[in-house]
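2024-03-11 09:14:02 INFO receiving multi-entity request
2024-03-11 09:14:02 INFO entity count = two
2024-03-11 09:14:03 INFO echoing inputs for audit
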Amino acid sequence: MDIPSGSPTAGRASRAPGMARRFLRSGQVRLGVGLVLATTAFALLGPLLTPFDPLRSVSMAYAPPDAAHPLGTDNLGRDVLSRLMAGGIHLAWMAPAAAILGVGSGAAIGMIAAFRGGIVDAVLMRTMDVLLAFPGILFALLFVSIVGPQPWLLILITAIALMPGCARVIRGATLPFTASEFVLWGRAVGLAPRRILVGEILPNVTSPLMVEFGIRLMLAVGLLASLSFIGYGIQAPTPDWGLMVSENRSGLSIQPLAVVAPIIFIVLYTVGGNLIAEGAARVIGRTEGKVR
Amino acid sequence: MMRTATRTSEVATTDAGRRRRRRGRFLLLRLLQGVLTLLVVSILIFVATQLLPGDVARVILGDAATPERLAALRVQLGLDLPVHQQYLNWLGGVLRGDPGQSLVTGRPVLDMVGVRLVNSLTLAGVAMLVMLPLALLAGVSAARRRGKLLDRLFLGTSMIANATPEFVIGSVLVVLLGTTVWPILPPVALLPTGQSPLMHLPSIALPVLTLVIAGGAYLARLVRVSFIDVMSSEYIQMAKLKGLSERRIVYRHALPNALGAVIPAASLVAAITIGGIVVVEYLFAYPGIGSLLLESIRSRDLPVIQAVVLIIAASYFILNFLADTLAGGRDRRA
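2024-03-11 09:21:47 INFO inference complete, emitting structure
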């Protein structure tokens, strides 16, 4: 642990941006960020550039690729390329939103639990245990069938599923700092707890936060796409990558592209998130002298 | 470790005793906490299913039912009682081993869930049996060639498999082995009713393979890291200096030690497998509790939904508890 000596505030001010630069020097992180940004750009710009109406049948069902439809058509004769371009937008905004919400609330809970200790710690972490006793997909199934597949609900459920794991990790990462020089200094000069948490502790847990964000983004994409796939996420006829896999399964032997194309994009997205997490974890491992 | 051994035996025994007591207390606390958690979960499940839209009595009798018949059926099913009374009745039934009757088929829930549960446990069990030796082999092979081509290849592929959701892994396998590229396995796991999935191994090959890849990638990476840790530990270095053969070091000393760290992780992977089973069963139309859950949610069959969700939550908890116990009562959560 390299806790800055001397004036504590001067030490941390230069720390956060330096960390970000170090992360981006790692090839793995750069590749991961690149994949996530490229997939997101495709998903956000795609709907504006679709060659055909993604909701209208343009040909017979499961037509093989030709010049007009380079990826062929789907189960209802709609252009697969157009649906692919239009079908990533939900994932592209909902997954990061859920990841930010889940990691944000999880990190806040973990930091507060570690900082306050005692009964607050016990209550918060045991609540997280209750949430962890439940596979995320079960939560989602129950609540989506009660409320209906609303985007805000899908984001909220995904965030709740991501939160407890993150809270544990960040609590563990915060604990060593709760007795460090600058936190004791902050308490001694009477800084508000909120300012100590945000100003002093947060910059020191940016590295585990980076790892967490990568992992949770990957999990969010997986959960949201899986929900679409089993019919509890984005609903037909809206184009959506997870839904496309399930819609076109029956035509796999004739027109596999209608399934393979959305799969490639889902994998690019989740692998991007995982690369960010792994690269960041390796950067941390290097600075702490553990190289694996 | 070495130091405790050189202490006087008296100190060592009291030390061990204290450690065992602390470990026992930790596990007891975890067990108590787990039972409480399951109780909270059961309340949540019950409230959630009560909130499901749709009138159960109307689902059973159909749209043509008269108001009198609907009211009579509600009384018969106990749906006119206050919610907490309904919950207590249900919980009492669950504890007596009678979670009620299906609203759709009229059969006891236990009968409906029983067969499906056995099917799901078979699927998960076969997957774990295949996964464990494979993950061990892959992890150790990669660790022993650390930094070489094989290791890099392993790290790359396992990273991708690790990041990929189960339904995508399953769909890719269907394209590769079920329908398009090299169709040698049935793409759907249809089982004749009343027959064990073990009698139809080709039918369950693809769902098993999906679970093996999804969980095995993670487990193999853990094996690799823990094996590297053990191999670089002091006493293995010592064994090397003593001139023991590489084989002997790996199989007699390193492997058993690496396993200590891997076995708790394996039960964690089993828990993840339980979570993934809903999607995998849907994908392959496999008649287990996951697909039963989806069917019963669709038909608003509340007693079945409640039973299945409780079973999944309970097995999730048991496997996590097992992981804690196998980890020797150390708190994995810290």
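2024-03-11 09:21:48 INFO post-check: The first helix of chain A runs from residue 8 to 13.
2024-03-11 09:21:48 INFO post-check: Residues 1-14 of chain A have pLDDT under 50 and may be disordered.
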